[in-house]
Design goal:
about 80% helix; 4 helices; elongated; mainly alpha
Length: about 110
Amino acid sequence: MRRIIDFIRDLLRSVWISFISIFLVMVFTTCAGFFRLNGDVKALLLLDQRVLLIVSSLGLFVVAGLVLKRSTYKLVNEPSWRKRFRYFNFVGVLAVIFFGFILVAGAIDYWLQR
């Protein structure tokens, strides 16, 4: 039972980090594109969607490389990491973060298609 609780806690913490990252990327992209696109909301959302997909694809590419070379990376401060995440490792947290990017980009696409 304790492993399930640790897994859910780590998953929720990773999702929270993902939402913060998505918010920061979208704010930066929207501010950068606001003057160039003359404040067109649909164009800004399309720009946000494209940037989220590009960042997530590059991030998942890095995650795939880390999974393939599992023995080559070591966290410098592993005990500190285990205080925050008991079940997930660094690669698992990155995978959840970039999967969240894809989900938000899909939600933006769904909203734009309506």
